[in-house]
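Now for one record:
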Amino acid sequence: MRVSRVLRRSRAKRFSLRSIMALMALPLGGSAIILALFAAANPVIADVLGMIGLPDLSHITARRLLLWIAIFALSWSLLRARPARRLIPTFDGSGDIVIPGVSVASVTLSLLLFNLLFAVQNMLDMAYLSRALPLPSGMTITEYVHRGAYPLIVTALLAGLFVLVTLHPGSSTAAVPPIRRLVVLWIVQNVILVASSIQRTLDYIDMSMLTALRIHALAWMALVACGLLLICWRMLQSKSAAWLINTNLMLAAIVLTVFCFLDAGEAAAWWNVRHAHEVTGKGPNLDLCYLGRLGPSALLPLIELEGRPLPRPFRERVQWLRADIQQQMLSADHQGEWTWRNQHRLEEAEERLKTIRQVPLAPAIRECQRNIGSPAPVIPAPVRPASTLTERTER
């Protein structure tokens, strides 16, 4: 397309591509014929022409050529990048979509029932989480908090899908003011539901510990809440589906960019060592096994914990685990698994360890949660007399 536009523009100029080709065809063609004849007659010219080597195309298959063309097409768009007005061009998403069972009456009745159900769930959550009502018999607060965190997020996602399908801009249902008010109320209740899931997760962290997966889950819940608010804003402002998708993609890209530089495992390790029962006297016990699974992310938090006044058996396990992780990182560097972040951690660890008095560790079999005991003494195998060995060899 670009070549055709260039050719169209060149027609208005004095020298067009066609005129240049017509002009040079005879001189170049005749020169080539004469040069070939001279090469056949003159070995010097033949040797000079023989020094001009053309690329060997025998090993280049059609598939490679197609692959190179595809790579060039993709690379050319990146080299000549321009700011896009939208990330994904999509349909407008306006107007009615014929869906069996979806009408103004059915959507209104559905929203009334949904708002009622969500109101009951939110009130029960507030009552149970605030300890205003006792839990049902046989259920602990830990079980109640843990079992409802993720199903509520699925419920909120289904609510967002319902609004997207039945109340897109320009539809007959979105044009009814009572339905729009019911949707706004329902979206607000969904956001409260997501906030309840976040509170459940935070309560469970206080009862157990913080993990990298729970940090990711909290970020995901915040994204779901923002997505629900954007769905409501899209309906009220008659935004397009492209706007909704691209705005959600932008928020997701921001979160992913933050986690490119934030080590969730290290953040969890810092929180755990500063809020553990062994440090503050309250809260859950520190799970050293989990810190061991974090590997390099737990090195600096373990060093800080090692510098605190701790009971001797616990201090030995912390020091042993820290030394084990540090040794694994040094071995990984020698094996070619070097990373800038781990190198920075090792350098900072060496500086901090200069101010911490090490506890002498007696030979023992240790695990992340307890000291098993001293290793069994190695009994050397009995050495047979040389005469006996000589007799057996002779036999």
User: Anything to note?
Assistant: The mean pLDDT is 76. Strands lie at 365-366, 371-373.
